[in-house]
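SEQUENCE-TO-STRUCTURE ENTRY
===========================

Subject: a protein chain together with a token-level encoding of how that chain folds.

Sequence line: the amino acid chain in single-letter code, read from start to end.

Question of interest: how does this chain fold, as expressed in backbone structure tokens?
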Amino acid sequence: MARYTGPKAKISRRFGEPILGHSKALQKKNYAPGMHGKGKRGKKSEYAVQLAEKQKAKYTYGLLERQFAKTFELAARKDGITGENLLKFLEARLDNTVYRLGIAPTRRAARQLVGHNHILVNGSLVNIPSMILKAGDSIAVREKSKSLETITASLSARTSKRFNWLEWDTTMMTGKIINYPDRQSIPENINEQLIVELYSK
């Protein structure tokens, strides 16, 4: 189950955004990491800007290069706008959906819950975080896991914010994908067109 395991604060400082979760380091050091972080940066090339946007998306959703490339290929084959398809598929990953439903406080925690067999998809145990769900799929917390502290704490901390492409039953601890999210429903600060341009080179 390959994933990025390096320092989160450094990545957040590189992009100037808490893309791997809240980071105090970003508040204290709102400049890039490294000995030249405070210095003036030269103008980035078009390629560098596009590459940085892809890296931001990869870190945000917790994918490594090969898996991200496969997701892009899937998005490119599907009818519609490739960049929006890419974000829709990333959002529909099982680990991200568990996170969006509020079952886990972060995507990393969601990936761990899935990998440790705490999540059911359409009534069956699934331990593949990268599984891309479809409209109509149901996601539930396994009966034995409903009292798990990580899950109960995350659900109790849920804000009133809901995603219009998901349904959630608090009593049964089950959710459902109504459809793939449209671009306006995806809050991530990612310029997907730059990623498309990078892959089209």
Remarks:
- The beta strands are 119-121, 124-125, 138-141, 166-169, 174-177.
